[in-house]
Each structure stands twice: as C-alpha cells, then as structure tokens.
Give the backbone structure.
Amino acid sequence: MSFLDTPRDLPQLGVTRADFYRQIENATPGADFAGPTIKVAGGAVNIADSVPRWIKVTKGYADFAAGATTNDIEVLLLPPNGVIQAVAYQHGAAFGGGGLSALTISVGVTGNATKYGAARDVVAAPNTLNTLGGGGTESNAASASIRAFASATGDNLNAATTGSIDIWICYAVLPSS
C-alpha cells in the first residue's frame, strides 16, 4: 500500500501547505487516483477530483487523415463535472504534403470548434509560441468529448505526409458532493 492509499491528517504530512502539495507532486503521473484521499480540516481531498492536472496529447498528420478537407478527433474525454482550466497547443513539425496550401487546427467541442482555442496555422514553420485557449465547463451529468478540429485548403487531409501537434489541457473534476 502506497503512502497515498491511506487517508492522512495534514499534521502527519507536515505542518506546512508546501508539504501537502509536495506529496501530490510526488505522485506518479498518469496513475489512477480514484479513491486516495488526504484528510484536511475535517474533510477529505480526493486527489483525482480536486487537483488540476495537465495532460499532453500528441497527434500527427495520420490521426487527422480523412478523404475530406475537415475532420475532428477526440483528444480528451472530460469526466462528468469536469472543468477545463486552460488549453495550450503548438505544432512541432509543419503539416504538409499533396496539394495542401493551408491547414489549421483548433480545440473545442462538437458544435463549437474553437471553444477552447482558436485555429492555429500548422503549415507554417513551427515556432516557440503556444496558442493559448481559455477554460469552461461541459456536462455535469455526462462525459464530454474535447476535440481537435483540422481544416485544410488545397487538398484533402489524407494528402498530408508530415506534421504533428502537441496539445496540453489543464482540467479538474468538481466534487460530486
């Protein structure tokens, strides 16, 4: 049983807030934290629900391939009560191939392709600037599909032979009670 598998009073972790957050930071990234709690002031903090976390998703040209000029793919299945706090994305390799003259990627949801981030030109040479998007909420009752939307000019998306994009999403899940 790991240290985080057992509810602990804050004094057992140390008397400072820094000690509390150090325990969370030392948790294994990507681990399933459904259930572990740390007791704080008569309540409990569920790590999975209460601590915002960043995930990174990398998608390449083949992920967007379609015999059409537009396509969208899921990058995160946001849990019920999920809150997107921020989105950042940047292409690491320019998209290109075939007759593509322009290609943009945005982040959003079905019906609002730019809800979490504006269209980014990914045919241009990569640079060190991220496209930043804001936050928002989806359904309190059901999971929501957060999607990357690609839109091409000059050829279908399946003509692309190069390109990749990194998408970072910071989200948390509101407690259910």
The CA atoms of residues 36 and 119 lie 38 Å apart. The longest helix spans residues 17-25. Confidence is low (pLDDT under 50) at residues 1-15, 28-36.
